[in-house]
Structure formats: C-alpha cells, structure tokens
Amino acid sequence: MKKKRTAFIKALLPMVLAAAVITGCSKTSTTTASTESDSSSASSSGTLQRVLQDKVLRVGVTRAEPFAMENENGELEGYDVDLANALAESLNVEADIQMLSLDARVSSLQTNLVDIVFGDFTATLERYQSISFSDPYTATGVRLLVRADNDSINSLADCDGLTIGIVKGSANQMVCEQYMEDNGINFEITFLDQHEDCVAALRNEQIDVFIEDGQYLEYIASQYPDDLKVVGDSLTAETYICAGLQKGDSDWKDYVDWFIFTINTDGTNQELYKKWFGTEMTIPLNPQY
Amino acid sequence: MIHLDFGTPLRNMPAILQGLLLTIELTVIVCALSLILGILVGFIRYQKTRGLYQICSVYVEVIRNTPFLVQIYLLYFGLPQFGIHMDRITAAILSLTLFNGAFVAEIIRAGIQQIPKGQWEAAECLNLKHMDILVRIILPQTIRNVFPTLINQAVIALYTTTLLSACDVRELMQTSSLLAARSFRVIEYYLVAAVFYLLLSNLLSWALGIINRKYFPSTGSIRR
User: Fold this and answer.
1) What is the ipTM metric for this complex?
2) CB contact at 8 A, A139 and A277
3) What is the largest CA-CA distance in chain B?
4) Is the pTM of the predicted complex or chain greater than 0.95?
5) Which chain B positions have a beta carbon within 8 Å of A110's beta carbon?
6) pLDDT value at A4 more than 70
7) Does the CB of A126 have a partner CB in chain B at under 8 Å?
8) Rounded to an integer, what distance in angstroms lies between the CA atom of residue A200 and that of residue A205?
C-alpha cells in the first residue's frame, strides 16, 4: 500500500511542477508588464525605446509587387522597403526586413515578431480591434483582374455564378462577402496562399476574377498585357494603406505618424511612389494637414 | 498580456468539423488507394521486369526526393498550362496517392526482400507458379511484417493533407487558417486544430493497430 501511494505521488509531482511553472510564467509576464508601465510612464510597451536601444528596427513586408519584391541578387526592394529604410534612417538604426505571408501580418504584430508592418496593409475596423495602425501613407481602390478575352465582366455585379480568387488574409475577403450579402449575388470564393498563385490560377482558367488592390493589379496587367486586364471601378471607397503597429504603444504610434506626416509634406512619399508605380498618387490622403 | 478567447473557435465549430470530416475522408481514400498503388509498384520494383521497372524507379525516386508542396503546386498550377485541367479534390487525391504510393512501394519492396528464401523454395517445390507464390504466400507475410510501418505511413499521410491548403481544399488546416484570418484569433484556432490532429492521429494508429492484431498477428502480439 505504501509503495502504491509513493508511486502515485511521484507521478503527480511533475504535473504539479509543470502547472506551477506555467502559472508562474504568466504571473511573471503580468508583473513585468506592470513594472514597465510604472517605471517608464512615457512608453507603455517601449517599442521606440527598444528600437533605439537595440539599434535595429524589425520590419515585416509582404510580397506584392511593387510594394516589396526580391530582385535578382535576392535582396528585398520596393515601395514599402524604401519606406522602412527611410524610417530606420530617421531613427539612426538598421532595418531588419523580413517577408511575411498575408495572414501572418496581424499575428506577427500580436506576438511581437516585428515592430512594424509595411505590407500593403489596409486599415479596417475589424483589424483595428486587434492591432493598431499608423496614419495612411497611400491609398488604393480594389479592382478586378480578368482574362483579356473575357468581355462580360466589368464589375462585381457581373460575377454571378463565377469563381473569384482572393489571397488568404486579405481585407478583400470581407469586401466580397459583404457585397454578396448586400446585392444577393452568389459567387464562389477561392482562397489561395500567395498573389502569384491567384495570377496563375486566373491564367489557368481555374478562377475567373482576381480581386486585389488596383495598383498591384495594374502592375500585374502590365506584365501580361495580352492575357490579363484590369476592369471595374473601385469596389469600395478608397482603402487606406497604413503601417501596422502593435496595440497599446502610443509613443511608437506618435513617432510613426509624424514620420508619415514628414514624408508626405516634404515630397519624399510622392517621389518614392512615382519611382515604383510610375504615376503620381492621385487619391488625396486623409487626414489632410 | 495576450488574452486567449476560445469562444470564437467554439462558435465556429460546425465549419471546423466540416474541415475535419474532409480530412478524414481524404486520409481514408488516400490510404486505400496508395496501398493498392504501392503494392503494385513494390512488386514491379522487386521483380525488375524490364520496361516497367525503369518507369517505376523513376516514379519512386522523383516522388520520394521532392517535397509534397512542390508536387501539389506542379500538379494544380503547372499542369493546366499543358492543357490538363482538374478540379481541386481530384488534384488533391491524385497528388496524395502518388506521394504516399511511392513510400508504400518502398516499404513493400523491403518487406518482400525480407521474406526468407526458404519460403520461395518450399513453394516452388510444391510446383506453384511465380505469380501464385507472390500473391498467396509472400504477400500476406509481407503485409504482416510491415504493417506497423504502414500504420506510420498512414499517419504521415494524415499530416500531408495539411499541405493541401496551397490549393484551397477546405480540409481542417485550410478551414482553421481562413477562420483565423477572419477573426485574428490565430493562436486559438491553431491550438484547436492541433488538438484535432492529435486526436485523429491517435485514433488512426489505434484503429489500425486493432486491425494489425486481429488480422495480421505476429507471434509477439498473439493474446494468450
């Protein structure tokens, strides 16, 4: 009988220890958070302090030409990459830029994998509940990409019964589902992992329409001028592209907002936009100073 | 402090269960088909019949030495450029069967080679034809010997279905991923998916283990 009891206790001990460690860990993290907020009343999570201390700014970008793409040498370049480098330069630190998939943009901020996301990131009310955004640095409209020989599609209203491709994690998912609900039109939505998968599927006739930012689609259409074309007016009111930030860090947000204000007023933003997109930014940014 | 909200996955449980159902269906179909394919190819690789052996060798080597994700991409996005169109479920089942079939073929071939030569010689003494020996004497023993490895391969087949999210097959992984992207509850949804995969793989190996003990008992596992 004694042997059985000690064996039982020996089995229970590691589980009790594990439970203690787990609750202990979560307790420690809450105490660290509260001490940080007590000691430095200026920064709640201290992203700005951390960036200045470690001398590195961790940036997430997504592959959406020409926002961010890899050139022949394997280096990242693009509109978002240039903006990230300008921000790092203003802080006098190095930029550590990594490529994220579209649906990793929100979770990478929630788990503190990156300090900021420049990733063709549209600010929506749903997203604002989980993460924060900077002021907009550019704006775009959502349009349709179809095969060049398809004349029957000019807007989403013509898409009854067709298949629409959307990149997983894109804000356009909500746009399309809302449209379906509001207008009683039924189409099938296919979610693929990457932008180029959707382009390939469109050319393979596996989907009929690809819905994405108008700017990106114009770039793709220019790559395949004979096969694909962009149609449709903007599906929604202009969507504003902002940099993604972690929630609750007002110091960092103030800094990034002022950075964007600076590049807007001194012409840097317009210059970079023209460099990568070939045209001027036509949609006025909101807020206008 | 990250606040975990498991209410969201629980509210969307019907959708997740539909994905789970598709995963189970795909796994069962693929295991059955790849077993048949694997036995056929394994035989041919053992026999070394002239033309077929070369074809099967190329198939097995290519499939085993390339990642499954590359294969599904080539099959689903690459083939249509040569005019071969197929819907997503067909592409999924085809690519998974080819992938697992190659591994099963190697398992079966190794199993046949392990059967002691005495079995062959005794069967030949009884004047049985070669095909008869293979099918009625060697194959049952092979399956009995390699069954644990085949159970392992079935679990691998289950995990390989997660890669089908590349072509939007709404199995458990893709469903969780889409729901997570919609509500931003990433950790919660993937934890739920992990729990389901854990239960599923345990169930699979347990069920196959019962079949193993009942129909292919080896001396070590016969209950006295």
Assistant:
1) 0.74
2) no
3) 76
4) no
5) 2, 184, 186
6) no
7) yes
8) 9
